[in-house]
Amino acid sequence: MNDLVTLSCEACQADAPKVTEHELAELIREIPDWCVETRDGIMQLERVYPFKNFKLAMAFANQVAELAETEFHHPGILVEWGKVTVTWWSHSIRGLHHNDFIMAAKTDALPRS
Fold first, then answer.
1. Rounded Cα–Cα distance for residues 79 and 59 (Å)
2. pLDDT higher than 50, residue 1
3. Residue 97: which of 5, 14, 40, 3 has the closest Cα?
4. What is 17-109's CATH number?
5. 47: which strand partners?
6. What is the rounded (10 degree) CA torsion for 93, 96, 97, 98?
7. In angstroms, rounded to a whole number, what is the distance separating the alpha carbons of residues 33 and 29?
8. What pLDDT digit, counting tens, does each position of 36-89 carry?
9. In the structure, what pLDDT confidence band is assigned to residue 92 with cuts at 50, 70 and 90?
10. Is 100 within 8 Å of 45 (Cβ atoms)?
11. Around 70, how many Cα atoms within 13 Å sit in the side-chain half-sphere?
């Protein structure tokens, strides 16, 4: 488990700083199973979690939703048979903030039974 899991999200306003290239290189090492994707010019963190069936995938997606509500930071969640794709980015700054890395680490720490 990394230090990101112990942190909480901060309120992110439209003028909040995006992570720098240097910060990105350091932070991504703490969540090695995540990929940086760019969609419509917006950098996002994404990971696909495999599951044995739809019911387990849905249960995990619900855990991610509860986590998002607790931290007041919300991802994209795609539930399919046997997998859940989670995508974190900060809508207000149209890119990546420290909050996204915190949430990715917290998502990794959720139980997947």
1. 10
2. no
3. 14
4. 3.30.1360.20
5. 86
6. 170
7. 9
8. 999 999 999 999 999 999 999 999 999 999 999 999 999 999 999 999 999 999
9. very high
10. yes
11. 12
